Amino acid sequence: MKEVINKTVFYFLFASFMLSCSTSITNDLTYENAKEIVSNKKIELSHIHVDTIVVNNPYSLSGDGFWKINGDSLYYFDRLLAVVDTYDKNGEFHSRRLGIGRGPGEVMEEIGTVCQVNEKWLLTEIYNIYQFSTYFSDKKMKFLFHFGEDIEERKQDLYANPDPREDIELYVPAYSMPQMNHLLDTRVLMKVSCEYPDFLEKEYYSSSALVAEYDFEEGSITKLMGKYPPCYQREKGAPAFANHYYSKYKNGKYLLSFALDKNIYICNNTFEPISAFGIKGDIQNEDYNLIDFQSGGVESYNFQEERDRKGFYTSLYYYAEEDLTFRVYKTGTKDEATLSHNPSRMQLYRGTELIGDVKVPDNFEIIAYQAPYFYADGLHEIGEDKDVIGIFKFKL
What we know:
The chain is mostly beta strands. It has a single domain (2-394), classed as Neuraminidase. The protein has helices spanning 2-15, 151-160, 202-207, 303-309, and strands spanning 35-36, 41-45, 50-54, 65-70, 73-78, 83-88, 93-98, 114-117, 120-124, 128-132, 140-143, 171-173, 180-184, 187-194, 211-215, 220-225, 236-237, 244-248, 254-258, 261-267, 273-277, 291-292, 312-319, 324-330, 344-350, 353-360, 365-370, 373-382, 387-394. A five-stranded mixed sheet has the order 1-21-20-19-18, with no helix packed on it. The protein has a five-stranded mixed sheet with strand order 2-26-25-24-23, with no helix packed on it. The model is unreliable at 1-22 (pLDDT under 50).
């Protein structure tokens, strides 16, 4: 987490040298006015059988990566090495592409997140956005937002009077639990993080956006959307759990969930909350250590220990054909004998009714459905002698 904080400082200093047109967050609907939908328990599932595809990788890995699926191929993106390894559905290795450099098939920094756009790959760094062909060639690069002519004047404005509701230069693609999805033409939706004020300040939770619309053709963020719910807008907070997650929902809407909020919000296409449902998971430890945003205290705040021991929600996935919502969470633990392991569970909702709450492997995150299987990220074990990575699959 110290590394992330250091990166945050660097990102903002870099952002201060960039200029772009302003946009704004629109939130006419509020969390307080969101309609509460009572979720009933009608448990149908108490267990799911999860299979694991362990892949045959001939290279060393960093341990920080994620999976994507396209057709019959599995893609593992190693964020720190900035490479992508391709496998078939049986886990057999095919090829390695990308890498750090300035060549036609390389990127300049570690990878943020990836999505497919019109049969091409769109890939984020911090301030660079790349477009590649299906086989990671034909590189095109754009910036996250436009450079301005008077960089120094804009830098002074941002420092003197930052406005997270308007200033797109304050944002970068979210580094923790990143997400990006294709919208239309060359536009994508990406989860973002505000760099000033950052997640260690109260204003972050009252003013910053959650997601942004980005247009690759234009080469800029074009819209900021969403905000944190009231449970985050207090004098004291738990910055280790600033994460949020979204999933495409029916009728052009989105589902939105937060690490410390039991609610799952149904939002319109600008991420304004319309209604909310959800039942609290089987959380075992909610003794969150808080910092006072006014007096500080972050120096003694142990981010990793908080996430290793406390309960919180970790991902969200909606499957439209069966009207199923999957929400994964960490239960937390107070047992001294198991403090090194924070168990994962997954809730399943049909509509707004809870039909299951089951054990799942650590770091489980559903990423796709290809009949008859759901596929999930999660297996990343980097050892001294051998690296083991793989992808989970299960049927309902």
